[in-house]
Amino acid sequence: MEEKRVKNTGRRTFYNQGISGHLTHCQVSKMKLSTKKIFSANSSNAPQYSLQQQAKKLLFQLENHGLGLLKYKLIFGDGGETGKKHRAKNILQPDFSVYSSEKESLINLSLEYVGRGDPLLTHIVVKVPSLKYESPLRTAVFFTSKKPIDVKLTSKYDHFNESQWKELVKKNADDQGLEGGDEFRAIAYVDMSESESDLSRLLTTRSYKEIPLENSMIAPYILVKLLTATKKNYEVEFLGFIGTSFNASEGEKPPSITPKHISEPGNNLGVKKRVKKFEYVSDFDKNGLLFWIGTSEGEKLYTNPLVAGQVRVTTSHNMYSTDMRVEEIIGRSRGSSCYWGGSSPQWFILDLKHRRLRCNGFTLRHGYQASNSFIQDWEFSASNDGVHWTVLFKCPHPPFRRPFDTKSWPILDGQEYFRYFKITQRGNYSMGIGTTGGGSAFLCIAGFELYGDLLMD
Q1: How far apart are CA 245 and CA 142, in angstroms?
Q2: SS3 assignment, position 210
Q3: Predicted confidence (pLDDT) per residue in 306-321, tens digit
Q4: DSSP 397-446
């Protein structure tokens, strides 16, 4: 590559603002969700999360434990419906829709599992509407069975309270027997009826509760008994059922899971940090972080994440020519030269924005169409403020041998999570293996990928 004068060597930052994400699991992925924000209860200045973001956070945390949202459908409800807007099946949809009954007394809702395999239930998630609704859910009892439950057999729970529930838990621990002729078991008691001040705080910040079962339960059928409405009816915004599945028909045994040992799998659907792993298999495989971001976290066909506005890329100099695009620095396709420079050092910085990665590997692609102009005397570094940098990898020699060649490196001692990642070439490029001198101060990179553990705020 011949050295040419670069007229403008000022720093440029390339980015787009805002693009909404999509949900990633079971029925959550199919909902048209509101962009309404919910504040963290910890601080008035804490980050705001849409329901989309909250559900994603829960799902990532669940995946760490091999869990997910189990899919059920409503097969029976005796509460009536106040109209299409408040229909009973809304209770299974995390999209700000609300189920409002016509009854003033208790309500029974029967659910059937419609996912794959056999469901193993570990946690229940309950969300009640804000205080603008007349009568949010206060208490409820949940039952499970291997066949539909006869509501009449559960009548003794119609006025159930917390002390009775504790007695039942002790009884179950002693004999492990089912009730109703071994047909069903009461598995959870939900109490949202805190003091008025606490309830107000709960419902205006995070109105989710996550209830771990004492023991994981095979749950093809669930009966929900809504209790103690304080006014004319009940409003329930969402019921979620968490667990995993197995194939009993193939002789597979249910996984051994103790729910109470999984501490807050979603931490009220919004604030607990969680980790997603990206493991290297081959150069520019589909297992990398940037590919995952470019697919809207696995929900769409790949789009360059810089074009999609999901990341920022900053370069030390303008691109060499106007037909070179900065997004090619982190692109996946080969065949387009991409370089910039004119003076030393040359670098680019990738900003993951709200994401944080503990990097354990990375991949580069040479950005020139000939067997020369290879990066040399370079380093890979990371930062959380874009000012103070930690060097993760150094290499004095050119790693490439061919046009658009690729190479990957492990990071063996990466312990910290970082927001910014930087490739820096301190001097001139190499004209090829075994050559000395003759290079120019340009950095030629046309592909970049990261691997490791992702920690999202």
Answers
A1: 19
A2: strand
A3: 999 999 999 999 999 9
A4: S----STT-EEEEE-TT--S-BSEEEEEE-SPPBSSTT--S---SEEEEE
